[in-house]
Amino acid sequence: MNARDFDWKPLALVPLLALATLPLVGSPSTWLTLTVAGLAMGMIIFIIASGLTLVFGLMDVLNFGHGVFIALGAFVATSVLGAMGDWTQSADLWRNLLAVLPAMVVAMLVAGAIGLAFERFIVRPVYGQHLKQILITMGGMIIGEELIKVIWGPAQIPLPLPEGMRGALLVGDAAIEKYRLIAMAVGLVVFGLLAWTLSRTKVGLLIRAGVQDREMVESLGYRIRRLFVGVFMVGSALAGLGGVMWGLYQQSVIPQMGAQVNVLIFIVIIIGGLGSTGGALIGALLVGLMANYTGFLVPKVALFSNIALMVAILLWRPQGVYPVANR
Amino acid sequence: MSHLLELRGVHTHIGAYHILHGVDLAVPRGQLTMLLGRNGAGKTTTLRTIMGLWRASRGTVHFGGQDITALNTPAIAGLNIAYVPENMGIFADLTVKENMLLAARKARNAGQMDTARLEWIFKLFPAVETFWNHPAGKLSGGQKQMVAVARAIIEPRDLLIVDEPSKGLAPAIVNNMIEAFGQLKQSGVTILLVEQNLHFAKRLGDSVAVMDNGRVVHAGRMADLAQDAALQQSLLGLAL
């Protein structure tokens, strides 16, 4: 698609929201800190939500159990990073990154593998039955949370940032936390890889086509269920990665953390347009920014603000900011 | 005469509804067979049952002598059968090039598509070349139909199944479509075509089957039906 055909309006919402809050916040340095925090939070939510939106788009599967992969990824990270104390307590940022990287990889592998089993035994028997999907995937998440408690215990576990990732960089008077910049960088890498896969490879083309009209993809001779299993695994693995990022962002993990984030990611994929990864990115950034701005300006309405944002967006575009054609 | 596709006593249920009541249909190899009938006669259901998109509850579908009744849709398409549904099945968010690339199963990127065949398709349907890099969803109805048929023939197929290619098209575009199907016929591919446009059917059809109430009520040569006004009146309620 060339630039002339691209719909810029939803993308413009992100800078518009940021600029609109500048006079409300008052101090430019505080505004910059909040904006970076919002974008970092948005990128982490995007990592988690990108797989979920494709899972829904490809097979109309409402996976309310997606949150369990977030918690799983975060708890796996506590074990991996706990075993690499020498590396995480070093002040050298590169040594820290070399500790966080395997934690991310192991979390993604574990979440992807569990995702494969989740699809096979929980989701597959209820294809095409939305109510059963909601009930059984929520049940799957409850079971997953209980299993996490069995393995890691029911208590909150600290997941401290490695030494070199703590602290902030000063940009003028604004303090920008290093980890938020790292989270944004990881989010951008994930988005870049996803965008490249979806736009430049045949598998990506099949996914985009399948989201629009899976029956036609099958009529062209492709087995979309195999594709779906692959997307489900990758989506679960990305949720695991997002769980590591979220856990480090919060610096602690609890078994219920997936359920807490679930609400945000469903808001994001509804804002984005079900099945749209580009829309999920815009939705995630808007949700991240909104949460941080309202948390600072009017903390009492912070919880409500993202639902208000979703309602406002749906009044403007009832199918989400980037609705998928044919759906 | 050998038949490439044969349906014997096919019944299809969609939920509680019994749509096909024992369809017997034979599609001769190398010919263009028209499937005619009033709205609701079961034409689209017959095509979807052949493709495995809806399951036959009784009866059999044979393709090239092989029983394909129980195969799933990708396996049926894998037997070199191309299908253009009534809604054209265009991926609106994808470009024309990407739509074509998806149908070229052997190609991993646009550079691996058969260029000689593409040139042939561009001559048949110039709009495909003109709008190659445009989102398919932005094309007109006629242009989309051309992309849909072009996509179906991007690789050589043994059987081409097309559901109402002239539906909603302007007369000039319908004439282009008739010319294109005429050339496709000459290439030797077997075609099964559902139509409501009787002018289209008369110009292109070699053989014909007429459906009513979920059954084939007449089968024979298209030329014979075209010349028999009384038969047309009794089968279709109008004359060609």
Task: Provide structural commentary.
Chain A is mainly alpha-helical. Chain A has a single domain (28-316), classed as ABC transporter involved in vitamin B12 uptake, BtuC (Orthogonal Bundle), CATH 1.10.3470. Helix content of chain A is 74%, strand content 4%. Chain A contains 13 helices and four strands. In chain A, β2 and β3 form a beta hairpin. The longest helix of chain A is centred in the first third of the chain and has 32 residues, at 28-59. Chain B has helices at residues 43-50, 73-77, 96-103, 115-124, 126-130, 141-152, 171-186, 198-204, 222-227, 229-236; strands at 3-14, 17-28, 32-37, 56-63, 66-67, 81-84, 159-163, 190-194, 207-212, 215-221. In chain B, β4 and β5 (66-67) form a beta hairpin. The two termini of chain B are 27 Å apart. The A-B interface holds A 1-2, 5, 202, 205-206, 208-209, 212-213, 215-224, 324-326 and B 51, 53, 72-74, 77-78, 83, 85, 89, 91-95, 98, 101-103, 105, 108-109, 133-135, 137-138.
